[in-house]
């Protein structure tokens, strides 16, 4: 039985996350996933929208995932690989080369990300929509102020 292990934040869960988990599961018989805690993300300089408890529950609910557990440090990976008896460590290809040092305990694989979707792009889109809405509200407020002034 082969076990694949991966890690991620999985904030604003989207089709790219789902397809990556599906492809990861296809690499082995079992998929275990470390989900970055809010505290660990803060250490990495990342701020999540969705709290850890919700993100890990979402990941656990995906049918391709057998186990999801907290990722709290960079250093825990070797212990997790041993505990889960993982034979493959896999990540998205934006991490190419970053985990090659784990090749001495398991096979390291980097998979391509799903094109045209990313959490970063979703965040940027939401920020742009927010900025547009604020601009509309300011314009409306200015117009209302002008109407009040003329009365």
From TrEMBL:
Concerning Gene3D superfamilies, the annotation shows: HUPs
Report which superkingdom the organism of origin falls in: Bacteria
Keyword entries, A-Z? Nucleotidyltransferase, Transferase
Q: What is its EC number?
A: 2.7.7.39
Give the matching InterPro entries: Archaeal_FAD_synthase, Cyt_trans-like, Rossmann-like_a/b/a_fold
> Pfam families of this UniProt entry?
CTP_transf_like
| Molecular-function GO term, any one | glycerol-3-phosphate cytidylyltransferase activity
Which part of the chain is the Cytidyltransferase-like domain? 5-124
Asked if S-adenosyl-L-methionine is a keyword of the record, the answer is no
The record's annotation in NCBIfam families points to: cyt_tran_rel
Protein name listed in UniProt: Glycerol-3-phosphate cytidylyltransferase TagD
What organism is this sequence from?
Rubrivivax gelatinosus (strain NBRC 100245 / IL144)
